[in-house]
Amino acid sequence: MGSALALVLGAAVDARAEDRPARAPAPSSAPTPVPLPAEKISRPTVAASARPPLRLHVGDIRKYMMPNEYLAAVGAPDADKYTVVVQGQRVLLPMKSEQPVPVGIVTPFWMLAHPLSAWRALVPDLRAPPPGPPDPVPQREFRWGP
After folding, report:
1. For residue 114, which of 127, 101, 125, 103 has the smallest C-alpha distance?
2. 121 contacts 110 by C-beta, under 8 angstroms
3. pLDDT tens profile 93-131
4. What is the separation of C-alpha 4 from the centre of its chain, rounded to a whole number of angstroms?
5. Residue 44 to residues 3, 26, 41, 54: CA-CA distances in angstroms?
């Protein structure tokens, strides 16, 4: 978009230069550059009322903190009052290496279509249940209490 804007402005300057009459060369031996009037670039203005104001108000802090945490924060030294700690957990994106490999007669064709991942067809899938019939006796669930 920036290059398109530069091309349009360049074409406008060239068109304006062609409209002017040619000047006679200066009698001096060194040519002096003729300054062109600066074009006024107008940018679209966004009305201030179109954007909502930025809300940075938290509200009642006691809704987000336990009473003992609130009292600890109020009684903390000044350095801790102005420190913000944000804790979060990243959402893991699905990876191609975690997608299942087709099993059966389709496997050689899949290996030809995906040569860089073909090794995965030769390695057992650790997430798959073990082969064979299911265990008829379920595992006991250990609990500390009743």
Report:
1. 101
2. yes
3. 888 778 888 888 999 999 999 999 999 999 887 777 777
4. 26
5. 18, 41, 10, 22
| pLDDT for position 56 | 80
| pLDDT > 90 in the chain, percent | 11
pTM for the model stands at 0.30
Q: Which amino acid is at 83?
A: T
Say if residues 111 and 118 touch (Cβ distance below 8 Å): yes
Give Cα 85 to chain centroid, integer Å: 21
Q: Which residues contact 100 (CB under 8 A, 6 or more apart)?
A: 125
Name 87's Cβ contacts closer than 8 Å, sequence gap at least 6.
none
Determine the average pLDDT of the residues in 57-69: 83
